[in-house]
Structure formats: structure tokens, C-alpha cells
Amino acid sequence: MTETFVVFRRAMRLSLRNPTWVIIGLSQPILYLVLFGPLLKPLSAQLGTGNAYQLFVPGILVQLGIFGALFVGFGLIAEYRAGVIETQRVTPAPRGALLMGRVLRDVVVLLTQAIVLTLVALPLGLRAPVAGVLIGIAVVGLLGAAFSAVSYAVALTLKSEDALAPLLNAVAMPVLLLSGILLPMSLAPGWLEKLSDVNPLKHVVDGVRAFFGGDYTADAWWGLGVTAALVLLGFWFGTRTFRRESA
Known about the structure:
By secondary structure, the protein is mainly α. It has helices spanning 2-17, 20-40, 52-70, 73-81, 84-89, 95-124, 130-158, 161-178, 190-196, 200-212, 218-245.
């Protein structure tokens, strides 16, 4: 635990020294919220809700959790080239702590961004129960932890931005289109909706939307369960990679 906190504190200090990427990462979802969200207001009835932002904001938050964490591996490659990873490897710190400390920093940044994004949505028209919003933001933090661990593991394996960038983009595009982040997949044709059912992130989006709507139904908890499974898989893959690369 102590080693995890040491790695977290160093990573957090680096982020605070240069918050540019944190601000840039938040600017895109805010632009979606301000420039795309109003287009959905007249379509609220067709979307099956009285408040379009109850559907749109959870999707944008999940998008933030995925893409805000998916690209953190680029920073690890820079640290690898600077010799930081090798220096940390010769210490007695558990390899899991080297991963956990970085992931914890990413989760703190994501939660901060998610809170800011939700506050920005309030004057635009978002109305949602506080408990549902808090659970939804927590799910986004867990999702970010899973993708952050995977991103670090893939980056440590490839050790090249030229290989990491196209790989992440190849994964990100189908994930975005089949998760219903922007619009519910219930609006899609039957074949496309069934295809999206195999995408676990679609269930995460549905779950967060249910929490924001105050519907603590089986779909909501199923989304939370899928997120927990992704976290376990992400940490298993990340820790295994860090240990293997240190062997």
C-alpha cells in the first residue's frame, strides 16, 4: 500500500505540474454537451424520456471514462524511454504497486473531470437524483481504472507510440459506435441492436443511464456488474504484464 501511494503521489504531482492534457481531455465532452446536447431536446419524446440530458450525459461520462483512460499508455512509453520504469523495477516495490499507483492517479483525474462535466450539465437542463448521479460517476471511475490498466499493459508490451496509436484507434471506433454512447441502441435496427448486445460497454452505458434516471433495476446493476468484471480483467492483465516485463 505504501509503495502504491508513493507511485500515486509522484504521478499526481506530474499531472498537477502540467494539467494541459487534463483540460484538453475535458474540453471535448463539454463541447459535445454544449453543442450537441441541445439538438436532442426536441427529440426527448422520441427517445422515451422527458429529459434528454438524462440519456446524453451518462453516455458522455462513459465516453470520458473510456477515452480518458485508454490513451494514458503514451505517458508510460515516455517514462520507459526516460528510464523511469527501469529505475522503479530495481526497487523492492511490488510490480502491482507500479501499476496501481498510476491507475489511482488516473481515476482521481477522471472523477474530477466527471464531476465538472456533470456540474456543467446542470444549467443546461440535466435533472437526476443525487444518489443515481453519484453511483453513475463511481461506475465511470471504475471503468476508467479498467481501461487505464489495460492501456499501461499494452503500452509496456509494445513500447512504441507508432504501434499503440493505430491499435487504440482500431479498438475505439467500434466501441464508440456499438455502445450507444451518443444515442441509445434501442433506436437502432434489430440486427444492429443485437450486435451491440455483445459489447459489454453497451450494458455499462445502459446501467449508468438507469442510475441517472433513478431506475435501480436489474439493467442498472447488471451494468455495474459488467464494470466490476472489466476492472478485474484489466488489473489481471495489467499486473501480469508488469510482472512478466520485470522477469
